[in-house]
Amino acid sequence: MLNVSDYRVSYGQSEIVHGLNFSVKPNEIVAVMGRNGMGKTTLMKSLIGVIPSSGGQISLDGKNVTPLKSYQRVEQGMSYVPQGRMIFSSMTVRENIETGLTTTGRRTVPKDLYDLFPVLLDMRNRRGGNLSGGQQQQLAIARALASDPKLLMLDEPTEGIQPSIIKEIAQTLKDIRDHRGLTIVVTEQVLSFALDVADRILVVEKGQVVHEEARATVDAQKVASYLSV
Ligand SMILES: Nc1ncnc2c1ncn2[C@@H]1O[C@H](COP(=O)(O)OP(=O)(O)O)[C@@H](O)[C@H]1O
Ligand SMILES: [Mg+2]
Question: pTM above 0.90?
Fold first, then answer.
C-alpha cells in the first residue's frame, strides 16, 4: 500500500531523515516508534506533503506520489492526524469535520463518522476548543476520515491523553482498519499502545529505521531499550 524508499528530508542544510526505507501492506497497522527529536514528525509531515522531501520516493498503491502536493496526496487517499491534533478551536465540531470533506464532494458529515464517535454527534455544535484532549483526538481522527482515505497516518495520537482513552483510541483504530479496510501508520513513544494496536513495529533513531519486528514475535524489552533515554 505504502512504499517509502531512500527517503530524505532536510531543514535547510540539516538533514533529519537519512535515506529511510519502509513499506506497509494493505490493511496493516504499523507503529513507527522513536524518542523525541528522532524525526517522526518530520517524516509524517513530509509523507503528507506539508514539508518537501530532499530525496527518495513515496508510492501509494503502486503510484508515485512524490511529485504531488499535499491536497493531491489527500485526493489519492492519504490522510493525516497531526501531533497535538491541531483542531480548529473556534470552529464547531461539525465544521471541523467538514474541513475534511473537501476532496469528496460531500457537503455534510456522513452518518457513519458520527456512529464511530457518538460523542462528536452530541457535541457537534460545540466549539472544538471546548472539547477534552481525548475528544479532540477523536475529532482529529474523524476529520481525517472525512476525506475517505486508504491510508491514515497519525503522529503521536496518545500524547497528553489519559490511559483509559488511550485504550479506546487503540480499539477505534483497529475497528476502522477492520471495517473500512484502512491501512494505518502511527508514530508513538508509548510502547503499550503500539503493542496494543500495531501488526508491526519499526524503531527510528536519527532519521533511520534501526529495528523492525512483527507484533507477534516482538521483543518488547528490546524496543523499550530504544525508547528509554
Ligand atoms: N522546522 C524545523 N526547522 C529546523 N529543525 C527542525 C524543525 N522541526 C524539527 N526540527 C528538528 O528535527 C529533528 C527531528 O524533529 P521531529 O521530527 O519533530 O522529531 P520527533 O517528532 O521524533 O520528536 C529535531 O532535531 C528537531 O529539532
Ligand atoms: Mg513529533
Answer: yes
